[in-house]
Specification:
Length: 291
């Protein structure tokens, strides 16, 4: 259904909400301003359109107690269908779903788990259970990795029940430092997002799954003590100007201990090669006061 709200008066919008979407008259009358009423109506229209599209799809998923294979359900009160809306199997489907989310349900162009939950309950069915199974707790033996599976049980609007699962593992190597401090909770959020993503057939990462590599702080990727010792010992033995050499990697002797393992490996290899080739003039200690 498509409604041109620009041609509707405030009272007309209120009447549509009451008659078509079963809003209480008193509640509708309390909403002041055409803008808020228009937004409410547009959300209702978007939800029913979304429901009708899902009704055409056959979404299949498996669960621990058996395979549940049913056509997606629709809210019985939904009527009409937006002719311009794509089919769930069309390449434009993911973009269409994103267009149904509100601004605060999208982060960096990616849908949030909260937005997908709302879309699911508005158009697909009620989420009656969200079961979290912590498969692996973080400890020193597994590199502080948490593995979690989330199973969603949904009572569809056609009185059928389906389940969808999502799983995720989290540790310092694949998660920003701020979230890696809470690996179980972070893994649970990502797993839940993946379950909703399966349900709605979205081919995009969710906001919970998106990682900024520059914010990852993996203790396991730090410079090793033996690497730092080798760099200091060899530079002293070979009379290497360590300040100038480390500047090649935007480091100083004071920040050397903060670098990662792979960079430290490069530095060690460079200094070790000096034992065979000799120390280049620009890195010799006698040039400390030059330039």
């Amino acid at each position: 259904m498509t409604i041109d709200t620009t041609k509707l008066k405030v009272d007309e919008i209120r009447q549509i909400l009451v008659k078509e979407y079963q809003y209480e008259q008193e509640k509708v009358d309390e909403i002041k301003g055409k803008g808020k009423l228009v937004e409410l109506l547009q959300n209702e229209v978007a939800s029913e359109t979304f429901s009708d599209i899902l009704d055409e799809a056959s979404i299949v998923d498996s669960d621990p107690v058996g395979t549940l294979s049913h056509g997606a359900s629709v809210n019985e009160e939904a009527v009409g269908q937006d002719e311009e809306a794509p089919s769930i199997n069309d390449p434009e489907w993911t973009d269409y779903v994103l267009s149904q989310l509100t601004e605060n349900e999208i982060q960096g162009g990616k849908p949030t788990v909260h937005g997908l939950r709302r879309i699911t309950e508005a158009a697909y069915g009620e989420v009656v259970q969200s079961l979290t199974n912590v498969i692996q707790l973080p400890d020193t033996g597994n590199n502080n990795r948490a593995t979690v599976k989330v199973t969603l049980t949904v009572d569809r609007y056609d009185d059928k029940t389906v389940q969808f699962e999502g799983a995720c593992d989290v540790n310092h190597s694949n998660t920003e430092a701020a979230y890696a401090r809470h690996p179980v909770a972070t893994a649970e959020s990502r797993a839940e997002a993946r379950a909703y993503k399966k349900m709605l057939r979205l081919n995009i990462l969710t906001a919970e799954e998106t990682v900024d590599d520059t914010l990852i702080d993996d203790p396991g990727d730090k410079i090793r003590p033996q690497q730092e010792k080798m760099i200091n010992v060899l530079s002293e033995r070979l009379s290497v100007n360590l300040d100038k050499l480390l500047d090649k990697w935007n480091l100083t002797p004071d920040t050397l201990g903060l670098t990662n393992h792979s960079t430290a490996k490069d530095i060690c290899g460079t200094i070790n090669s000096f034992q065979t080739t000799g120390v280049p003039e620009q890195y010799r200690l006698e040039n400390l006061n030059e330039s």
